[in-house]
Write a structure and sequence with these properties.
There is one protein chain. α1 crosses α2. β3 and β4 form a beta hairpin. The chain is globular. It has four helices and five strands; from the N terminus they run βααβββαβα. It is 32% helix and 26% strand. The N and C termini lie far apart (44 Å). It is of the alpha+beta class and 152 residues long. The chain has a five-stranded mixed sheet, with helices on both faces. It has a single domain, classed as 3-Layer(aba) Sandwich (Aminopeptidase).
C-alpha cells in the first residue's frame, strides 16, 4: 500500500489539482475541462475556509488525489451538510485503497465538524464510481439533478 497523507490543499497544489481535474472531467461528459475556470474554482474554494475545504492525498511529495467539500445548510436536516465533489485519484494509483482512505477522511472530518449528512454526484454512466461509493457505504437516492447552464 502507498504511504500517503491527506491534508488541506494550498495554492502550491493547484497545478497538480488541475491535472487531476482534467482526468476527472474525461469521465464526466456533462462537463468540459477548462483549466482557467478550474483554477478559478479551486482558488475560490481555497479562499473560503468556512464554506469549503479542499483535501489532497499526497505520497512522496506528489499529489495523487483530491476531493472538495462544500458546506451547505439543509432545512431537511436542520443544519450543516456537505457536498463532496471532485473526488479523483491519479489513474495509475487507482485500485490501491487511496480513494477509500480519502473518502473516510472526509467522513471523519464531517463528523468532527458537526455535519449531518454528506452527499455527492456521480455520472449516471460511471458504474465504477457507483460501485466504489456503494462499497464505501454510500447509497443512491431517488433525487434527480436538474441544471441551468445558461446563466453566465
Amino acid at each position: 500500500m502507498v504511504a500517503a497523507i491527506i491534508r488541506t490543499a494550498t495554492e502550491a497544489d493547484i497545478p497538480s489539482m488541475l491535472g487531476l481535474l482534467a482526468e476527472l472531467f474525461l469521465l464526466e461528459p456533462d462537463f468540459r475541462f477548462d483549466p482557467l475556470k478550474a483554477e478559478q474554482g479551486i482558488r475560490s474554494l481555497l479562499q473560503r475556509p468556512r464554506a469549503a475545504i479542499v483535501f489532497v492525498l499526497e505520497a512522496d511529495q506528489q499529489v495523487l488525489g483530491m476531493a472538495t467539500l462544500q458546506i451547505l445548510i439543509s432545512t431537511a436536516e436542520g443544519g450543516d451538510v456537505g457536498l463532496v465533489e471532485d473526488v479523483v485519484i491519479t489513474p495509475e494509483y487507482r485500485g490501491q485503497g487511496l480513494g477509500k482512505r480519502l473518502l473516510a477522511y472526509i467522513e471523519a472530518w464531517a463528523r468532527e465538524h458537526g455535519l449531518r449528512r454528506l452527499q455527492l454526484l456521480a455520472d449516471r454512466e460511471n458504474k465504477a464510481a457507483h460501485r466504489f461509493y456503494e462499497k464505501a457505504g454510500w447509497h443512491p437516492t431517488r433525487l434527480q439533478v436538474f441544471c441551468r447552464t445558461d446563466l453566465a
